[in-house]
Design brief:
The chain is α+β, with helices and mostly antiparallel strands and about 190 residues long. The protein has a single domain (about 25-190), classed as outer membrane lipoprotein receptor (LolB), chain A (Clam), CATH 2.50.20. It has helices at about 1-20, 115-125, and strands at about 30-35, 35-40, 50-60, 65-75, 80-85, 90-95, 100-105, 135, 140, 150-155, 155-165, 175, 180-190. The protein has a ten-stranded antiparallel sheet, covered by helices on one side. A three-stranded antiparallel sheet has the order 1-2-8, covered by helices on one side. Strand 9 and strand 10 (about 150-155) form a beta hairpin. The longest helix is centred in the first third of the chain and has 21 residues, at about 1-20. It is globular.
């Protein structure tokens, strides 16, 4: 009887330990872009009308490229970003609704940057400035006469620089986060409205 109770207790402790080790901090709608600089994502709405984008995303961090195919779906009350594995199965999914952000991924599929950072960067790149969320201690600017770049500055320093391939929407973009030292290159392959 005592041995069974001890085994049950040990098994319960191991289960609780494993559960605690596997628990992930859920992504938040408030994204830290750098030291002392945050971006509160806007309510989950499409930039103009509901849209489904087929993308190729390459994240370059520490001179190691991480490339994957993705789908971004912007509907009335939610944003969904799905990243695919090389064999075309779902590697991760981020769903952003009014209730918050949910992130699911395969155990072996790890993005080199936080998933909520990636979704926030796409919002900063493609949403009109009037529909962007709230920046704390930051300023959004566009060089005069150049609609092919958007900057998020902290003081006089550029924190994030977004370069557009052309002036169409949605254009391919290169996003550089100078504070965290990574680059995200996004190419658009298909737009469905």
């Amino acid at each position: 009887m005592r041995i069974t109770l001890l085994r049950t207790t040990l098994l319960l402790c191991m289960l609780l330990l494993l559960t605690g080790c596997l628990a992930l901090r859920p992504p938040s709608s408030e994204v830290r872009l750098g030291r002392g600089a945050t971006y509160q994502m806007a309510a989950p709405t499409p930039p103009s009308e509901p849209v489904l984008l087929t993308l190729t995303i390459e994240i370059q961090k520490n001179d190691k490229p991480f490339r994957f195919k993705a789908y971004l779906e912007a509907e009335k009350d939610r944003l969904v970003l799905v990243g695919m594995t090389p064999v075309s199965s779902r590697g991760f999914q981020i769903v952003y609704t009014k209730e918050g952000m949910a992130y699911e991924h395969l155990p072996f599929y790890r993005l080199p940057i936080r998933p909520d950072d990636l979704l926030a960067l796409l919002e900063m790149a493609w949403w009109p400035e009037s529909k962007l969320g709230t920046f704390r201690h930051l300023k959004v600017s566009q060089p005069e006469g150049d609609k092919r770049q958007r900057r998020v500055d902290k003081g006089q320093r550029p924190l994030i620089v977004i370069d557009y391939e052309d002036e169409s929407w949605p254009s391919a973009v290169t996003i550089r986060n100078h504070a965290r030292n990574y680059t995200v290159v996004v190419k658009v392959h298909q737009v469905e409205k």
